[in-house]
TrEMBL record:
Domain KARI C-terminal knotted: 256-403
Keyword Transmembrane helix belongs to the record: no
Keywords: Amino-acid biosynthesis, Branched-chain amino acid biosynthesis, Isomerase, Magnesium, Metal-binding, Mitochondrion, NADP, Oxidoreductase, Transit peptide
Residue stretches in coiled coil: none
Protein name: Ketol-acid reductoisomerase, mitochondrial
Cofactor(s) this protein requires: Mg(2+)
Length: 405
């Protein structure tokens, strides 16, 4: 076993750290206390970071690099209502983001309408969420015609597919909003060439639309990227930040459309999803080939990671997680991390190149535009669910106390 059970590790680490310097001890013990109480320490780090405030913009020092961050506090609800009092926001598409951002805008009291195709699943889902046909739920063209701000939250493939019909409706004076830089940045492939006489802005929540909604309802906010592609009015950035807060962001990190789409495609193919899945599979397969049982292979690969160690990294960082593990585990992990980094870095460079040169976009557009896309995707999901590792995981999870009836 590479690391100990979470509670024992934490107990022992507290003991070890009583001899550590004051600053480290205070941080660790406070975090352990919070972890025991089930408190997530998320916003604290940002709050305690030194910052300068100039007219609602904060310059925060991220490990030696100063970056611009906008904060929800600067846009209280009354200010949002005043700012958007003459606007109609047409939110086109009602997938995960449409649902989260749309309901948050509605709860914030803004004049928001939904535009989706009448025969699609989204129309029914919107109705279930209380959007009323003819009042604030329309077909896409009608919603755009009534709006001043068009929030394009169709799937990325659909943004490309519908562009010939949508573009002529984006007349001077309207604002075009995206939650991903994908369509305009890869315009050679997507054909989304935005009109030159309108503001084009982006707010990209760093999480699922379901989380956008949940955090908003909890009175918190999701972290989002914010960017301007085209500023015709001179107000594009301010509008983007205000919209970002209105859809449920807590903090908005300033970036560009290019940087947002490159980092997003890269991250999800790497550590967030593809890379981590590949690491899990490789480690699990070797354990199984060397004679370990499915439960042992799963527990040492996934369960301990997701249930014990990764949450510790999320709470207080990598050194905090190391501190919670045995000296044996620490020594080996520090040594092997260097070899993994050196081995994987060329793969990450290949990945970044494939993202930047449009290879990944081309693949995504081709695959996701196929008429049999949903069936093909379901087949792949069934294959993943059927892998021994994830079947073993199902059995392991069934033994968790909360799953025992
Ligand atoms: N999901 C996330 O976690 C996330 C996070 C940050 C940013 N984003 C970005 O947010 C945007 C929206 O993503 P999403 O995940 O919320 O939505 P999605 O699930 O990718 O897209 C769903 C919407 O697209 C519509 N649609 C699909 N094909 C269509 C077509 N041919 N014509 C008209 N409508 C069509 C669907 O309507 P029907 O029901 O009628 O098919 C549905 O309303 C994307 O740019 C995405 O990259 C997503």
């Amino acid at each position: 076993m590479a690391a100990r059970g979470a509670s024992r590790a934490l107990r022992n680490s507290v003991k070890q750290l009583t001899a550590a310097p004051v600053v480290q001890r205070r941080t660790f013990v406070a975090a352990v206390g919070a972890a025991r109480a089930g408190i997530t320490a998320a916003p604290k780090a940002a709050v305690s970071t030194p910052f300068q405030q100039t007219r609602g913009v904060k310059t925060i020092d991220f490990a030696g690099t100063k970056e611009t961050v906008f904060e929800r506090e600067d846009w209280p609800r009354e200010r949002l209502l005043e700012y958007f009092k003459d606007d109609t926001l047409a939110l086109i598409g009602y997938g995960s983001q449409g649902h989260g951002q749309g309901l948050n805008l509605r709860d914030n009291g803004l004049n928001v309408i939904i535009g989706v195709r009448k025969n699609g699943a989204s129309w029914k889902e919107a109705e279930q969420d209380g959007w009323i046909p003819g009042k604030n739920l329309f077909e896409i063209d009608e919603a755009i015609s009534k709006s001043t701000i068009v929030m394009n939250l169709l799937s990325d493939a659909a943004q490309s597919e519908t562009w010939p019909a949508i573009k002529p409706q984006l007349t001077k004076g309207k604002t075009l909003y995206f939650s991903h830089g994908f369509s305009p940045v890869f315009k050679d492939l997507t054909k989304v060439d935005v009109p030159t006489d309108i503001d084009v802005i982006l707010v990209a929540p760093k999480g699922s639309g379901r989380t956008v909604r949940t955090l908003f309802r909890e009175g918190r906010g999701i972290n989002s990227s914010v960017a301007v592609y085209q500023d015709v009015t001179g107000k594009a950035e301010e509008k983007a930040v205000a919209l970002g807060v209105a859809v449920g962001s807590g903090y908005l990190y300033k970036t560009t459309f290019e940087k947002e789409v490159y980092s997003d495609l890269y991250g999800e193919r790497g550590c967030l999803m593809g890379g981590i899945h590949g690491m899990f599979l490789a480690q699990y397969e070797v354990l199984r080939e060397r004679g370990h049982s499915p439960s042992e292979a799963f527990n040492e690969t996934v369960e301990e990671a997701t249930q014990s160690l990764y949450p510790l990294i999320g709470q207080n960082g990598m050194d905090y997680m190391y501190a919670a593990c045995s000296t044996t585990a620490r020594r080996g992990a520090i040594d092997w991390s260097k070899r993994f980094k050196d081995t994987l870095k060329p793969v990450f460079n290949d990945l970044y190149d494939a993202v930047r040169d449009g290879t990944e976009t081309k693949r995504s557009l081709e695959y996701n535009s196929r008429p049999d896309y949903r069936e093909a995707y379901q087949k792949e999901m069934d294959e993943i669910a059927g892998l021994e590792i994830w079947r073993a995981g199902k059995a392991v999870r069934s033994l968790r106390p909360e799953n025992q009836k």
